[in-house]
Amino acid sequence: MIVIDTSVVIDRPVEMCFDFVARGYFEHVRRWLTSVTEVKKLTDGPVAVGTRGRQVNLIRGKAHGRTFEVFEMYQDSSFALRAVSPEGPERHYLLRLAFTPQDGKRCQVTFHLEVDWTQLSFKLLKPLVRRSLVKDVEMAVHRRLKASIEEMSEPSGVMPGGSQPMVVKPTRGPAK
User: For the domain that residue 120 is a member of, what is the CATH number?
Assistant: First the structure.
């Protein structure tokens, strides 16, 4: 199994970071986690413990999907999901994000990922796969997530200096 932990301080309040990542997971994840090519909510209502979704990640040029469930969601504190129906070679997937206030105006977001695949090549090339995943996660969290949230000024999505709606430029094509 590969475990990756990293964190970043974002110059926005913890409430805004939590809203963007947890409550807005289905709308925003493709903006910062670029390996996600498709994400679809399978249950009705707002994101909460028990919410299920389907996600497809592009890994080494191949699409790998999973059905996941939110199993932990504490207001402005933590958000976690895990695979309930892994597909293909994946046998374990867990993503947890923790949100810690920093001086009232900033938030430290801690990212924890666990992934395990059954393929022999995964086991043999584990150090190489881990390095590649670490590089992707660092880019996603330290650059894309931070930039996406810091572009916002208010939880309502209003940009500074006017009443224009928030616009966050996607890193690739339009959301599906």
Answer: 3.30.530.20
